[in-house]
Each structure stands twice: as structure tokens, then as C-alpha cells.
Design a protein that fits this description.
With about 260 residues, the chain is of the alpha/beta class. It has a single domain, classed as Alpha-Beta Complex (Spore Coat Polysaccharide Biosynthesis Protein SpsA, Chain A). The protein is built from eight helices and 16 strands. Strands 1, 4, 7, 8, 10, 13, 14 and 15 form an eight-stranded mixed sheet that branches. It has a two-stranded antiparallel sheet with strand order 2-3. The longest helix has 12 residues.
Length: about 260
């Protein structure tokens, strides 16, 4: 099973300007914790032990979050006479290793992965984006990747339409209304498995979703794992509100490990 994950967390998130003007999109909160934390917890419970996080836009906020993680999630006793501090009953203890790498402000997705190559020790790894949630089964994803024996596997998902759809009878009566139903198309849902050979397709400022993935596909080195379950990106302020609503109502499939 894969033990390391690379998380792309350096983009500017221009489509969610209401939030990303003040913080990087992976730090936008769901239920009081950054979406990045939700992604990591979801991966960790499935066996991921080490996270290499590719920083860029406002990356210092992500560094500060992890550097002060224990104090943020504990009751803190400060003794100013002895200049000591004690964390009382930490509410969260994490058995993971986190590597925070500044991969550049304007670096593209493929370039960010290329710049963390040294931390992957020549082993296969998971790669995903820092702004979306899903209930992808990593064991099934890795099993398909192993069986196909290609350099890369991408998780394919059905996106939702932007608008609600109507079914209308010949008499003009609306017989059914669906709010943003999923389409029949397959799109890139993130959650890649990459072999070390993928780095031969990357350079320090390439866009992963363009040249590298196209070349992998052309060379017969890209598999697809079809995920029919929950998948939700957080590209807009409205989508961040929807994810918070799901969390608050206990309806988010990714929260089963809480």
C-alpha cells in the first residue's frame, strides 16, 4: 500500500476570491478545520503516513498551522514565572509526518510535483489536490493501479452540472426537478497514483494536466480508476458553504473517521 502522499496546496484559488484573498484555499475551513486537514485525515485513516505538501500562495499560513498545531488543538497552561507551557489533554494527536515544501508562487502543478521528487525516495506515491473531498477507497485504487502496471492512474469521477435540470411533459408540465445532478461524463477527480517513472514526464514548470498526462496517455501509461461515490471540489464560495452544510449535518461521506 502507498504510504506517502503529495498534496498540491500552492495555487491562488482565484475562483473563490471571497476566501482566498486572505488565506490559501487549502486553509478555507469546514467545520472549524481547514479543508487540507480533512483531506489528510481521510487519507491517513486509509494508511497514508507521510504528507509532502507543495506550498506557494500564502504558504506561510499553512506552515504556521502545522508549527502551532498542538497549541491550536489543546488546552494550554502557561506559567510566566518559570517560562514554561504545558499542553493539557490535547484534543487531537496525529500519527503522521508532514513535510512542508515551498515550491514557488507561480509554479504550475507538474512543476510543484517535480520539485518534491527528493522527498519520495524513488517509491510510488499518491498525489491529490488540496481543495476537494471524496470517499475514494485507496485500497481499491492501488489494487487497480498494481494490476494495470502503468506509470500513472487517475481517479475518474462524474461532475455535477452547474444548473438544475428539468424533465418536462409534452403538455409543458415539469415532472421532475434535479438540483445539479451528475453528468455522464468522466473527468479528472485527482487522487493519482504515480510510479517514480512519472518524473521523466515532468519539468520544473509544467502543467500536470496538460503535457505530462497527455503524453502518459499517448504512450499507454495512464490508467483510470472509476469512482462512482462522493466527490466534491471546492472551487467557489458556494461550494465551500455546501461542504460546511454537509459536515454540520453529518452528511459528508468523508467524515466517517471523526
Amino acid at each position: 500500500m502507498i504510504k506517502r502522499a503529495v498534496i498540491l496546496a500552492g495555487g491562488m484559488g482565484t475562483r473563490i476570491r471571497e476566501e482566498s484573498e486572505f488565506r490559501p484555499k487549502p486553509m478555507v475551513e469546514i467545520g472549524g478545520m481547514p479543508i487540507l486537514w480533512h483531506i489528510m485525515k481521510n487519507l491517513h485513516v486509509q494508511g497514508i503516513e507521510e504528507f509532502i505538501i507543495c506550498l506557494g500562495y500564502k504558504g506561510e499560513q499553512i506552515k504556521d498551522f502545522f508549527l502551532n498545531y498542538e497549541s491550536r488543538t489543546s488546552t494550554v497552561e502557561l506559567d510566566f514565572t518559570t517560562k514554561t507551557r504545558n499542553f493539557i489533554s490535547p484534543s487531537r494527536r496525529e500519527a503522521w509526518k508532514v513535510v512542508l515544501v515551498d515550491t514557488g508562487l507561480d509554479t504550475m502543478t507538474g512543476g510543484r510535483i517535480k520539485r518534491v521528487q527528493q522527498f519520495l525516495h524513488g517509491e510510488p506515491f499518491l498525489c491529490t489536490y488540496g481543495d476537494g473531498l471524496a470517499d475514494v477507497d485507496l485500497n481499491k485504487l492501488y489494487l487497480l493501479h498494481s494490476e494495470e502496471s502503468r506509470l500513472a492512474t487517475v481517479t475518474a469521477v462524474h461532475p455535477s452540472t452547474r444548473f438544475g435540470t428539468l424533465e418536462i411533459s409534452e403538455k409543458g408540465e415539469v415532472t421532475e426537478f434535479s438540483e445539479k445532478p451528475p453528468t455522464d461524463e468522466w473527468v479528472n477527480g485527482g487522487f493519482f497514483i504515480f510510479e517514480p517513472g512519472v518524473f521523466d514526464y515532468l519539468d520544473h514548470n509544467c502543467v500536470l494536466e496538460q503535457g505530462p498526462l497527455r503524453s502518459l496517455a499517448k504512450n499507454g501509461q495512464l490508467s483510470a480508476y472509476k469512482h462512482e461515490g462522493f466527490w466534491r471540489p471546492m472551487d467557489t464560495y458556494r461550494e465551500s458553504k455546501e461542504l460546511n452544510e454537509l459536515f454540520n449535518h453529518g452528511a459528508g461521506p468523508w467524515v466517517n473517521w471523526l
